[in-house]
Amino acid sequence: MPAHIIDGNQIARAIRAELTQEIEQLKTEYQITPGLATVLVGENPASQSYVRMKNKACHEMGMYSEQHTLPATVSETELLALIAQLNQAKNIHGILVQLPLPKQIDEQKIIEAILPEKDADGFHPMNMGKLLIGLPGFRPCTPYGVQKMLTYSGYDPAGKHVVVVGRSNIVGKPIANLLLQKEKEANATVTVCHSRTANLPEIARQADILIAAIGQPEFITAEMVKDGAVVIDVGVNRVEDPSAPKGYRLVGDVKFDEVAPKCAAISPVPGGVGPMTITMLLHNTVQAARASIRG
Ligand SMILES: NC(=O)c1ccc[n+]([C@@H]2O[C@H](COP(=O)([O-])OP(=O)(O)OC[C@H]3O[C@@H](n4cnc5c(N)ncnc54)[C@H](OP(=O)(O)O)[C@@H]3O)[C@@H](O)[C@H]2O)c1
Fold this sequence. Notes:
295 residues; alpha/beta; Rossmann fold; six-stranded parallel beta sheet; three-stranded parallel beta sheet; 10 helices; globular; purine biosynthesis; methenyltetrahydrofolate cyclohydrolase activity; one-carbon metabolism; amino-acid biosynthesis; Bifunctional protein FolD
């Protein structure tokens, strides 16, 4: 039987429909329009495109958003001053600083300068700590999106062996921690692999749910995947393609054509995790707006 293609756009639409109702309620009952501030530093084309998509999604949802664009030469002090200003702004409930930042800026310092209650990306150590010990808080958008993709498509991770390939702070580690929690939509047995893992293919082959967050084009091949596994491809890699209009095309971390026939389900790139990431950013911003009512 052909693999079920886990359509991130479709799931994102379902979640956005639920969010639309919540946004309407915030507007009519509390006169609050959820607001997101995006901060873009420099001219990295991928970052520009991500920030553009995030602001566009806010507008489509009837949310407020404002973009702050700073030159690549901006100093850490100037960026911190902007964050301080956004922390105080009453109409801003979520702040997103697009990563990566230029070398002269300490990313961790910037993340820690964002008020945890406006940390729509969920990267602040306070929110990461809450994730680790299972307390409510903002969950990082891409990992949260992966979790929702699984549950919305009927693949409850409970009791399953999940293998996450990649251990970054923004993707691999938080995915592993989310799915490990003793709560619904989680309860998985989790193994995390990375560049120093011995016998990675053998471990990957044990996965009921294999999550690739590596940043290496088409790294996961058919021999690394068990028959009937569910595969979520987080990777977004630009590979040169002279026949493509832009001279490149996007591929994931999974060799889709050879892996898909073995799977029960697989997420494509593009159209998989990407739309989910943006949707969970909207979700976090709406939750931040709701929490602001309680002050
Ligand atoms: N769709 C989305 O919304 C979204 C969002 C964020 C990221 N992404 C994509 O997801 C991918 C991962 O992003 P990231 O920020 O987590 O990347 P990252 O910070 O570069 O981390 C990559 C991880 O993969 C591991 N790795 C690299 N090469 C490996 C190899 N040959 N064998 C085993 N493990 C290997 C690294 O291991 P070590 O720790 O040992 O170095 C590291 O833990 C990228 O393609 C990125 O573009 C997509």
